[in-house]
Design a protein that fits this description.
The protein has 233 residues and is mostly helical. It contains 12 helices and no strands. The chain starts with a helix and ends in a 25-residue tail after the last helix.
């Protein structure tokens, strides 16, 4: 290979290294991560005191606001303190206790089955690994990421919920539709030490600024970095 060909190959490699698989320049992605970090606190809005409570609250949060879940769990967590308590709960009673969160029958089945499996497989203790969590009823990868990141302080992945799916597409972070593929794209772009905090901030950004119907582009912390700014709503 002559010097000119080698030089061209090197330049192509350098250009390729500057972009993620999604096509978003890595420098822009990191700038977005930093700006979201400055704009939003890295906090989960569900109230909990331990991994079990967070697991239950996360299951309840499906198709429900965190505020409503917190209203329900104030009394729920006082009555049900251990996995054994949930496993022994009367399904008819339990579903009435969580009715305000919606889809209460499905959520009752998920939570009680989750608790029974905890008791049978893990002595009632929520495991702290992705592999063990996703084997439990009612726990998918998203919920497992919530538990690991916010209850155990472990960075095994990035939470991808409906807000993150929407915001990731608008920012150009991912062109995928499948949550696990979106998560992989995000994990390639975002430094591992930021995975948990980044996921929480993306959720807040989607909840309060980059909303589904009328995103608030004016004054958005990533306005000039977003390829979708002012094109929606």
């Amino acid at each position: 290979m002559n010097r000119m060909a080698a030089s061209k190959k090197s330049k192509r490699a350098q250009r390729g290294a500057g972009k993620a698989k999604s096509g978003l320049p890595a420098a822009r992605a990191l700038e977005i991560v930093e700006r979201l970090g400055a704009a939003y606190p890295a906090r989960i809005e569900l109230d909990f005191r331990n991994p079990l409570e967070l697991a239950v609250a996360t299951i309840l949060s499906a198709q429900c606001t965190d505020r409503r879940v917190n209203e329900v769990t104030v009394t729920l967590f006082e009555k049900y303190r251990t996995a054994e308590d949930y496993a022994q709960a009367d399904p008819d009673v339990f579903q009435e206790e969580i009715r305000p969160t919606g889809f209460f029958r499905n959520k009752t089945r998920s939570i009680l089955a989750f608790a029974e499996a905890l008791v049978e497989r893990h002595d009632g203790v929520v495991p702290g690994t992705m592999e063990a969590l996703v084997q439990l009823p009612g726990i998918g990868r998203k919920t497992a990421n919530v538990i690991l990141g916010s209850a155990f302080g472990k960075r095994e992945g990035i939470v991808v919920d409906t807000h993150v799916i929407r915001v990731a597409a608008r920012l150009g972070f991912s062109g995928e539709n499948d949550p696990e593929k979106i998560e992989r794209d995000l994990m390639r772009l975002v430094p591992r030490e930021e995975w948990t905090d980044f996921g929480l901030r993306m959720i807040q950004h989607g909840r309060y600024t980059c909303t589904a119907r009328k995103p608030k582009c004016d004054g958005c912390p990533v306005e000039e970095l977003c390829p979708s700014a002012h094109s929606l709503g």
